[in-house]
Amino acid sequence: MSEPVEFAVWAPLPGRVRLQVDGTVHDMRRDDGGWWRAEVEAGAETDYGYLLDDRENPRPDPRSRRQPDGVHGLSRRFDPSAYEWHDGAWTGRPLAGGVVYELHVGTFTPEGTLDAAVEKLGHLVDLGVDFVELLPVNAFNGTHNWGYDGVAWYAVQETYGGPAAYQRFVDACHRRGLGVIQDVVYNHLGPSGNYLPEFFPIFTDGGANTWGNSINLSGPDSDQVRRYVIDNALMWLRDMHVDGLRLDAVHALVDERATHVLEELAQEVDTLSVAVGRPLTLIAESDLNDPRMVTPRVAGGLGLTAQWSDDFHHALHATLTGESQGYYGDFAEAGLAGLAKTLTGAFFHDGAWSSFRRRHHGRPVDTALLPGWKFLAYLQDHDQVGNRAVGDRISASVSPGLLAVGATLVLTSPFTPMLFMGEEWGAGTPWQFFTSHPEPELGKATAEGRIGEFAEHGWDADVVPDPQDPETFTRSKLDWSEPEREPHRHLLDVHRTLLALRRTEPDLVDPDLSAVAVTWDDGDRWLVVHRGSLRVVANLAAEPREIDLDSEVGDVVFATGEQPSLDGSTVTLPAESAAVLSTR
Length: 584
Prior knowledge:
There is one protein chain. The protein is of the alpha/beta class. It has a domain of 73 residues: Immunoglobulin-like. Helices cover 26% and strands 23% of the residues. The protein contains 15 helices and 29 strands. The strands form eight sheets. An eight-stranded parallel barrel has the order 8-9-12-15-16-17-20-21. A five-stranded antiparallel beta sheet has the order 22-23-24-29-26. A hairpin with a 2-residue loop joins strand 23 and strand 24. Helix 6 packs parallel to helix 7. It is elongated.
């Protein structure tokens, strides 16, 4: 059934814009702000597109909510309010005290769809996490990739199920008590299917970052570009009922205005949070090590909710694996002192010299002002696994015992813990860099660039997976039979038990960084983290270690394996194990 519909598009660059609806072309009117409008009869799922100047092929809507025929095809109308939600009892939850679980829709299940992911939510509830963080789902060209090459920011990838499936997924999460965080990319666009530059100046002149041209956030005509970014963020939170956003690589958002786009976004999200009556979270991925990112606006910060701490990851990874190449160098050289520094201050490079960057880097965290939960801590994430040459997880490098030690240090830290899908059982499947560019030249260039990059660092070209090979994608899917057998079953139990402890032991979720103390011995390879009345004791050595604590030990609250022996204030910990102890 058709009804009068106003179509509107911001397109200050072309001199003429026409609307194509169901094969019929209509003229559009331009206002002084560069918006073009036309009111025509259209059905609820009408296909449409825009003809710019004298082009014969219609372009998809920059704010398209659905691309059923891919990012080069026509847009299709989608009404997000048509969905009948069942999450009326969901009041959201704050990030503080929560645990995040990062997953990629395409490799989380064999089917690789949002509806299939719903069938695995029981596993996440049983595991004990609080938030599901989805890698980017906005529409990209091809059938599968990591999601960071999206070009239709407002549409959900059709191979995942499209926007209707996305709403079903969020609804299902909420009914099971799980919040949803969506990873969004506002620092660049993918290489195929990006028609935005034909409509408006999406890119800044002469600016570029690691992934392409920089987004025009402060140049001429940037008001509406910023609006395009912020409106997209609000769409996920409002129309899709999402509880938070993970903002990709915000250090690549070049903004010279007095009010940074991130501060403007945080202000509007706070306003929306009041309107919808539930907490809304913004988590930054930032390479800056700048605590002002999460400092409240009243204290001169940008006011984001939280940020990732790659330094914690690097320190823990180097400790467990002994790796020292690249950016692991400083952390390996620092030894357990480096891990202790991140456990008490979130950042290792807090104004300190960074040999990888060949300069001083970062700024100290004011532990009296910022609680630990404002920093996400993790042993693995999609970047730290997928950007390795062969996409190998840490489970391929260290023993099950050390995996359990790593899990203990993450899940008892003063930070917000995050797990990467499959980490909870020490998944043996890799998570590799995969693409599906339909254009042969782009696919060839991507594969050659990836393989060549690692060949320059000494890797055999035959070992580095071809990202365009469909088998690279297939290999990266989780094997859901693994949790049924050892050693995966035991590691899964370790994670479940630790996550349950966070709900019964208040000291383990105390975010006061100034109250955390760490003692260690590099020679004997042990570490003790003071968490209130609890002591988290880790033995990283291949032999048992006798450790003298500052207080008499009460009980063993948790152990990763064989029980430690206690004698007054002395604990003897088995090799490659960890324990949580109470003190008297």
